[in-house]
Amino acid sequence: MVDEIVNESTRYSETIVANHPNSLKNFKAFQKDEFWAFLGLNLLMGVIKKPPLKSYWSTNSILSTPVFNKTMSRNRFEEILRTLHLADNRFPSRDDRFWKFRNFYPRLIEEFQNSINPGKLSVDETLVGFKGRLSFKQYIPSKRCRFGAKFFVLVDHHTNFVVKIIAYQGKNTKYAIQPAELGSGGAAAFSPINEYFGRNHVLIQTVGFRHPI
User: Residue 209: its pLDDT value, please?
Assistant: First the structure.
């Protein structure tokens, strides 16, 4: 999977350089080791939260987190972030707004599911904050970030480990159970847990509702 990320990102960076020669001057495609370092810094940003991206590389004694500067420069981090890609742009899918992640997604979920034997399950919708260009971006005023990508997420209730994710794309959403059977709301609720029926799991909602599935 990491090899595929590196290969597709290299292909995408070559496209950027070909179309905009001055946008990535002296750029060198990243390799596996550098990608793992980049991924580690992204995970660390979820633990150490700072306002703008550049503050992670600040040398100010109050804001400084030395591991970022020691791992890679901010310019290199932004180059990798800009060229990161998971699919070949030469073969888009017009009826699937999630196509850039579609081939990668099943293997990622399989790795998640192979990493844990879930017990009690919990399903909910979540909004991953994002204000850039995205064809399936949603606006939900009740959420803290309001703009972003909406997902239906199934997690192991005890560990919060993600077991399955369904990206919401409006009428083009790929449900395991078709909306015609249960309606859109029912399909959204039951599709994440569809393959766990009859396997002695317990479904738990945040309000405390418990029901065997």
Answer: 45
Enumerate the domain spans of the chain. Answer: 2-83, 99-212
CA separation for the pair 1, 86 (Å, rounded): 9
Residue 8: predicted pLDDT = 94
CA distance 59 to 64: 5
Q: What is the pLDDT of residues 91-143, one digit of tens each?
A: 888 778 788 888 888 888 899 889 988 888 888 888 888 888 887 888 888 87
Q: Which residues pair with 126 in a beta bridge?
A: 151
**CA angle at 136 for the pair 35 and 94, rounded to the nearest 5°:** 90
Strands 147-156, 162-167: pairing is antiparallel
pLDDT at res. 206: 56
Distance CA 21, CA 2 (A): 27
Residue 39: both structure tokens together = 């991924």
| Largest Cα span, the chain | 59
Tokens representing 148? 């972003």
> Alpha carbon 13 to chain centroid distance?
21
pTM of the predicted protein model? 0.77
Nearest in space to 89 (alpha carbons), one of 25, 27, 171, 8: 8
Residues 145 and 126: their CA atoms lie apart, in Å, by 11
Q: Residue 177 is encoded by which pair of tokens?
A: 């159970």
| CA dist., res. 192 & res. 190, Å (int) | 6
The average pLDDT across 152-167 equals 88
